[in-house]
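Sample pair:
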Amino acid sequence: MDRQDSLFNTLPGPWRVLLSDQEQLVDEIESKVFPGEINPERESIFKAFRIDPTDIKVVILGQDPYPKSECADGLAFSISASNADIPASLRNILREYSEDLGVGPRVNGDLSAWAKQGVFLLNTILTCRTGESLSHQNVGWEEFTESVLRAVVTPQTVGILWGKRAQRYSHLFTENMVIESAHPSPLSAYRGFFGSRPFSRANAILERSGLTPIDWSRQNA
């Protein structure tokens, strides 16, 4: 493998330094998932890592990329602003967002404005075969995610953990900084996701910690 073309080297520079001990693991993952038709596109696998690791205030953990290639964009739960086909889980997130904050609907499903304020939108499994959810579980991504969180979570980092897969990582956060609920998927949203008020609760925690809250209503047109 040409090191310059390796998947690990698509990580932004600060992350390559921070996660240098994970290079072999990423190489192993790359050998298992390529070649093949995968989501998201190769150049977007580490899109969530375009945030500076020192800027992270809130971590929202997703499961794995959307199985539809037109939806998976590398940020957990987010889709392109030009995509009008909003997946069901994201639709439920946007409903809870509006009800929690008492604001109108977002103009699209692009959540990158959250990332620009310090929200790390990270899937626990960073790839899947197109059309097949969870097809890349147990190839090494879960271990990689744990190492990532160990490297960036501080006692002041808020963790928003939706569903059992995300909640496996709760031990990496300070107990009173964790917001847990059911996953926003249609199968579980009515079992505790709706009404969980994760956005206002996260801001209340940040403010208690002396940090600037997230402007969740900021949108990318």
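The chain has a mean pLDDT of 95.
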